[in-house]
């Protein structure tokens, strides 16, 4: 802004249109000797002087001037556009945040155009809560899929602000516009194996981004209650199954897992110091319609349909690699129950007023399925034989086995998953075929 100011005031001193031009103030006129010439000549000179002055004032006097003026004009244009956008955006945010009844929540969903974010946002909106989405639409996987989800969200009445969770000024603006009662923080850099290719993106989103969200929540008045996505990967190299929330989580096998584990520590700190009510949900390999193309069930489907080989990992000595695959609708039910049972934060304006709720739950399916079985189900549903290449599991952050103990979530959230893998994959493949048939392309 400070750089713009002189440019704008300089612009303000120059008549922007010839119509504003005041010819009598021109210094050129005073130099004319008018005594010995006729009225006609006088008017001709006067007319010429006007034209000359217009030219002089609008033409560049130095070579640097045109660039300066263009930059200033652009700055002015973009400033006014930004103002217009801000108004429009604020109007949409406020309307999207409106709950149907006074008792409804007002929820900010980060990562709203993501897989889980889309399903949760729509479920909240449908039951009458106010929902505002936030998503940066990054290209970790095909952004067209995120845009298609955004369309669904729009149809459901959920407005998604395009922005990054690391943009503290934007978060503050959102909290200035809306008194959020809850934040459903789902924005993250997902994927276990990609962490070896792009480690900093995990630190940026899962640690920096989380802190940025908690910072704005801590300062908000009223402070919202926060529910956020941790991960089954925090159990790391544990071999005792099923995984319980009481088990150790100090041996992550991937940087992804390490950032989620760090997130749990950071969440505890904000709960302890600022009185934020925080619930972490450890999701177990969530799958379903509108899912993530970087996940095995998704790209296996694509490759099987294309007749391309798929690599199926196995553990040493032909050991089974298995996952506690959890269907999206069950996860959504768990997320909503976590929001509904969340107690209020106790602080205000950055000051803690008392102890606040701090919870962590496993949200899994409690029935691990070998990856080879996942492939067999897909073959049956797609009616195509897979070209399987069985390979030893590379040391890329994957763990051999996940299995959730969900008794705590069952007891305190009423969480009860109801969809087995075959039923869930049937819904997924039906969606996949219809979505990509319409698109006439794969992701
Ligand atoms: O539970 C979780 O918290 C995690 O679940 C998934 O991670 P993952 O279970 O590894 O899911 P996939 O990447 O879809 O892999 C599923 C299984 O397929 C196996 N796989 C993967 C890729 C491949 O080419 N072949 C193969 O056999 C993996 O080893 C794994 O056992 C998500 O990708 C993570 O973002 C999430 O946090």
TrEMBL record:
The protein's Enzyme Commission number: 5.1.3.6
Gene3D superfamilies: NAD(P)-binding Rossmann-like Domain (3.40.50.720)
Compartmental location: Golgi apparatus, Golgi stack membrane
Main subcellular location: Golgi
GO cellular component: Golgi cisterna membrane
Catalytic reactions on record: UDP-alpha-D-glucuronate = UDP-alpha-D-galacturonate
Molecular function as annotated in GO: UDP-glucuronate 4-epimerase activity
Listed transmembrane segments: 40-59
Transmembrane in keyword set: yes
Membrane topology of this protein: Multi-pass membrane protein
Keywords: Isomerase, Membrane, NAD, Transmembrane, Transmembrane helix
Limits of the NAD-dependent epimerase/dehydratase domain: 107-344
SUPFAM superfamilies per the UniProt record, alphabetical: NAD(P)-binding Rossmann-fold domains
Quaternary structure note: Homodimer.
Family per similarity comment: Belongs to the NAD(P)-dependent epimerase/dehydratase family.
Protein name: UDP-glucuronate 4-epimerase
């Amino acid at each position: 802004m400070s750089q713009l100011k002189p440019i704008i005031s300089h612009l303000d001193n120059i008549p922007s249109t010839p119509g504003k031009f005041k010819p009598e103030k021109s210094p050129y006129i005073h130099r004319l000797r008018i005594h010995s010439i006729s009225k006609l000549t006088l008017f001709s000179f006067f007319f010429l002087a006007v034209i000359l002055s217009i030219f002089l004032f609008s033409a560049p006097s130095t070579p640097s001037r045109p660039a300066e003026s263009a930059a200033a004009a652009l700055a002015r244009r973009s400033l006014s556009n930004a103002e217009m956008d801000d108004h429009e955006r604020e109007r949409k945010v406020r309307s999207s945040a409106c709950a149907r009844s006074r008792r409804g929540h007002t929820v900010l969903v980060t990562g709203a155009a993501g897989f889980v974010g889309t399903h949760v946002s729509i479920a909240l909106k449908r039951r009458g809560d106010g929902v505002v989405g936030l998503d940066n639409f990054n290209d970790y996987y095909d952004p067209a899929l995120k845009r298609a989800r955004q369309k669904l969200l729009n149809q459901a009445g959920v407005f998604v602000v395009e922005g990054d969770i690391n943009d503290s000024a934007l978060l503050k603006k959102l909290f200035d516009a809306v008194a959020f009662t809850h934040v459903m923080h789902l924005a993250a850099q997902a994927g276990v194996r990609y962490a070896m290719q792009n480690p900093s993106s995990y630190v940026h989103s899962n640690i920096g981004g989380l802190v940025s969200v908690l910072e704005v929540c801590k300062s908000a008045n009223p402070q919202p209650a926060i529910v956020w996505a941790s991960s089954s990967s925090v159990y790391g190299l544990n071999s005792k199954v099923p995984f319980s929330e009481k088990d150790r989580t100090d041996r992550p096998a991937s940087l992804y897992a390490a950032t989620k584990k760090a997130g749990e520590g950071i969440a505890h700190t904000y709960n302890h110091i600022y009185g934020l009510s925080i619930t972490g949900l450890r999701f177990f390999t969530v799958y379903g319609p509108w899912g993530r193309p970087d996940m095995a069930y998704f790209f296996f489907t694509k490759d099987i349909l294309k007749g391309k080989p798929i690599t199926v990992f196995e553990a040493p000595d032909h050991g089974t690699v298995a996952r506690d695959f959890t269907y999206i609708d069950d996860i959504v039910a768990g997320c909503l129950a976590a929001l509904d049972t969340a107690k209020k934060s106790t602080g205000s304006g950055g000051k803690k007023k008392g102890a606040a709720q701090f919870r962590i739950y496993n949200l899994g399916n409690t029935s691990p399925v070998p990856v080879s079985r996942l492939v067999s189900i897909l073959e049956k549903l797609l009616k195509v034989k897979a070209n399987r290449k069985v390979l030893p599991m590379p040391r890329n952050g994957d763990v051999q086995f996940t299995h959730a103990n969900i008794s705590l979530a069952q007891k305190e959230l009423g969480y009860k998953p109801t969809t087995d893998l075959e039923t869930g994959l049937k819904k997924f493949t039906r969606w996949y075929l219809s979505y990509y048939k319409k698109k006439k392309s794969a992701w």
